[in-house]
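For practice. Any example?
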Amino acid sequence: MTTKRILIPLPGYGCDPSEVAIPWRLLTEQQHQVTFITPNGQTARCDDIMLTGKKLGLLKPMLMARADAVQAYKAMQTQESFQQPLTYAGVKADDFDALLLPGGHDKGVKEYLESDVLQQLVVDFFRARKPVAAICHGVLLAARSIDPATGKSVIYDYNCTGLLKTQELTAYNLTRLWLGDYYLTYPGTTTEDELLTVLARPGQFLEGPFPLLRDDTEHLNRGFFVKDRNYLSARWPGDLYGFSLAFIEMLTE
């Protein structure tokens, strides 16, 4: 397999550890080169609640990162590419073969989701028809990337998926008594709500099967993702293995 250059943008704080580390592990196992970028070139810090389970109480086994993701994250932390990321403004799409957009729901991800620099970078990848993969809140970055040539989102006419409204509100309602709106990155709306506003037709958003169990290499049928041309999207960490393997397959097409 030919080595591909993969770009992964991260916020300074708040990325979901699973959604960064599992794709990183599977990509690097296939000898692909991963480059991380952050707003100012400082090492990213993931959402500590998702990594450790602190403050989740009895819901910790259900909501925090699974053991395989924690192990992958700790291994990723030792890599120079993660410890010394480039800056958002210091890269261009021409230098990479594909783009991966992880998610995260802590308020810290807003600097990532709302970055004009990253949105232009996403537009550049779509214009070049290079593979772009987004999961969970990462799909909002793709949705907010407006192509000046059309005045519409780069995913305007794509079939896609993303974090379901039911998932987002269930996590919020289960934890709001002690975590407040921690699970609502944007209180008053949801990821699914926003995605529907940028698509040509509501039917382009595909919910997939009920998201209950997380997938792994032995149970890929538990996950769900949508591939449409150069764009791959998924809903939550439970889709990560199928999503990552589909992305790796896109790199060979």
Summary: The first helix runs from residue 17 to 29. The chain has eleven helices and eleven strands.
